[in-house]
Fold this protein.
Amino acid sequence: VDIMVDITVIEDEENEETEEEELPSLTRELDADAIEKLAKSAERPSVRAHLDSLVSKLRRESAALKRVEASKQKSTEEKADSKSAAVSEDETVKAASNPEPAVKALSPPSSRPAPPVVPSTAKYCPIDKFAFDAGSYNS
């Protein structure tokens, strides 16, 4: 007997929105806070030590991610500023320039390749003696 069951997945829309908005640095910081709270209730000192080391690791990662996020935000702001500045420069250049496009004539490429560059200090150095030891047979 084959029984088919219709399974529907119910997704929490609010939870998805908060997960997308949550920054990785904030996630690490919140994890470290939760682990610190749990570490206070740990009975064994070795468990507490492991949890404390995990908390310090998460705090370091959080600080590093905050620096990365700040630099990304700064670079996107600079790109936006440079794009707006470039657009305003283009508009002023178009308004000030004449309607004829300026085309620079290109010279045809030369048919001869450039001569090789030889340093003046390169000289032939003869080797008077050399040695080669191939080893012994079946060694």
